[in-house]
Design a protein that fits this description.
Layout: E1 5-9, H1 14-24, E2 28-32, E3 45-49, H2 50-58, H3 62-68, E4 70-72, E5 74-78, E6 84-89, E7 97-101, H4 103-115, E8 120-121, E9 126-131, E10 136-140, E11 145-148, E12 150-153, H5 159-163
Parallel strand pairs: 1-2, 1-12, 2-8
Antiparallel strand pairs: 3-7, 4-7, 5-6, 9-10, 10-11
Helix pairs in contact: 1-4
The protein binds flavin-adenine dinucleotide (FAD).
Length: 176
Amino acid sequence: MSQKRALIIGCGIAGPAVAIFLKRAGYDPCIYEAKEVHNDYTGLFLNVARNGMRVLAELGVDEQIRREGIEMRAMSFHSSNGKYLGTIGERSGEPQGYTVKRGFPHQVLREAALREGIPVEFGRKLVHMQMTDRQVTAFFEDGTSAKGDFLVGCDAFIRALASCSCRAPWSPNIRG
Ligand SMILES: Cc1cc2nc3c(=O)[nH]c(=O)nc-3n(C[C@H](O)[C@H](O)[C@H](O)COP(=O)(O)OP(=O)(O)OC[C@H]3O[C@@H](n4cnc5c(N)ncnc54)[C@H](O)[C@@H]3O)c2cc1C
């Protein structure tokens, strides 16, 4: 039986992570990224919390984040008007997460996906998609298209999917 093709839109954090899990589950994923080239030094910092580290461990890339990251042992939360909300962890305790440059997890996950033989196509910005009962076609800004059995939107805030005229009976719920 031929493998089902998964079109993964976006090669940030979610895209390669989903693609690797799908590949391991027997699907045939391909990642389409809008940017022409990757820039692994873009953005500010991101803290990968313990639950995120557990997912990265499943993907076999947690050690890279530990090596590159700054241990975050305690983190205090304040509301936008300064009210203290609480603290997780202790200064002398176990790391609660690791702080890395925002582009670093992108790089690590993209490279892991490539190592698993998952193609990553740059300069492929999703602008439209069409669904039939059996197939989905993704149309890209450069005039090309790709067919798959299903499509997973990993384009952050599901912006591209939100603007696509699909027949989904729901409106995207933007969760950030
Ligand atoms: C300044 C800042 C600080 C943050 N700090 C933290 C933090 O400390 N801890 C934390 O857990 N989270 C943090 N976040 C949130 C975190 O960065 C996001 O939750 C995470 O990046 C979401 O991953 P993603 O894969 O969904 O999106 P992204 O990592 O943003 O990747 C989306 C990818 O989709 C591509 N794309 C977009 N549109 C299209 C299209 N039409 N076609 C093809 N590709 C497309 C983009 O180019 C991008 O590469 C922070 C966010 C910001 C902005």
